[in-house]
Amino acid sequence: MQGHILVGITGGIAAYKTPSLLRLFVKAGYEVRTIATEHALQFVTPLTIETLTNNKLHTDLFAAVAERHTEHISLAQWADVMVVAPATANCIGKLNAGIADDMLTTTLLALNKPLFLAPAMNENMYTHFSTQKNLQQLQANGVHVIEPTEGFLACQSEGKGRMAEPETIFQQIDNFLHPKEGMGIKAVITAGPTYEPIDSVRFIGNHSSGKMGYCLAEVLARKGVEVELVSGPSHLSCNHPNIRLHKVETAAEMFEATAALAPTADIAIMAAAVADYRPAHIADHKIKKSEQHLQIDLEPTQDILKTLCAQKKEGQFFVGFALETDHEEENARHKLESKKADMIVLNSLQDAGAGFNTPTNKVSILRPNSEILHLPLLSKEETAERIVDTIFETINKKR
Questions:
Q1: In what order do the strands lie in the sheet with 4-9?
Q2: What separation, in Å, do the N-terminal and C-terminal C-alpha atoms of the chain show?
Q3: Contact 323/306 with Cβ under 8 angstroms?
Q4: Is 309 noted as a catalytic residue in this protein?
């Protein structure tokens, strides 16, 4: 059992997201109990909440049938942490004023454990001086506020007031209760192919799906690392709240985005299959087919890994990928030394089940002054875990 989480639900439309939050806590191994206000039950049903948590939903301070006569006290003592999601302006105001007039606010007043609030309301209500004053005072008293986001609101307007997504709320509380190895660390990862335009409809590209880079981003994010994922064209998606996705198409765009993010990164992993060459001139119209041979002049693209490694600061750890078809280890070792990287992950297209558009991968890891680490054929998720473990082991040894 991971711990005890007490969830308060108030009467805002964002309450429809709360069952998803409960599911995340239960799936992660937490025991969850819940308290709902009378108005919250206009948006969620007791049956839904109790089915998801396998525990009774508490709503009435003076319920005739109760496990204990002072359930607001016993629940406050039982919890390791409490979160109110959504937290309406009314609930926030009552809490700051010390008002206890229902089961939820009475329990909040009895609580001496860590408390998280996930505000949700109309933008004008959120920015109103009284709401902001209440939140500032609560934060000064040690309450954790999970900021709402901007977007389309239930009142048909756009603004800041949307409750944070359940995944974000879960991650903050899970990280609080169980600090992760990578918390406080920032990483930038490149993934996928690049498309280098020939004319208005054609391009030079490759078969990379981006899966290896996306898996690396997911593994690092689960460890608490804040990840900036710079992705070329890919059908893949990422939903982890610790991952911010930057979509690009060309090698130049990938370089520009990565170079802007790298100075503040602790770890940089260049997993993308970046084009080595691009057309020197791009036709502004579709090149018509003819009987004549077509010649395209190519020029080299910017070497992202080499450029970033040349600008590397003390304490940064840079990883490159090498995809080879012959003299694999020799070429990978040369890349490690010539580009002054801290690690090279070698892919060989000679290995069955490795390379582009496969669910598996087989890699070797090269580091300066170390023997080559050969990994067996694994899923790309497992490969990513082994690569990330090796990165952290190497960094910790250096320290």
A1: 57-58, 31-36, 4-9, 81-87, 115-119, 144-145
A2: 33
A3: no
A4: no
DSSP β-ladder status, 317-324 and 298-300: unpaired
CA distance readout (Å), 67 to 63, 72, 103: 10, 11, 14
Q: How many CB atoms lie within 10 A of CB 359?
A: 10
For the chain, give the number of residues: 399
Written as six digits, the tokens of 104 are 């939820």
* Per annotation, catalytic residue among 155, 215, 238, 309: 155
The answer to whether 248 touches 159, Cβ cutoff 8 Å, is: no
- For residue 389, the SS3 value is helix
d(CA 60, CA 38): 8
Return d(Cα 37, Cα 58) in angstroms, integer.
9
Asked whether the whole model's pTM tops 0.90, one would answer no
* Whole-number Å distance between alpha carbons of 243 and 228: 6
Give the residues across from 247 on adjacent strands.
Answer: 231
Residue type, 317: F
Instruction: Report pLDDT digits (tens) over 128-179.
Output: 999 999 999 999 999 999 999 876 666 566 678 889 999 989 989 998 998 8
Residue among 243, 209, 246 nearest 226 (CA) = 243
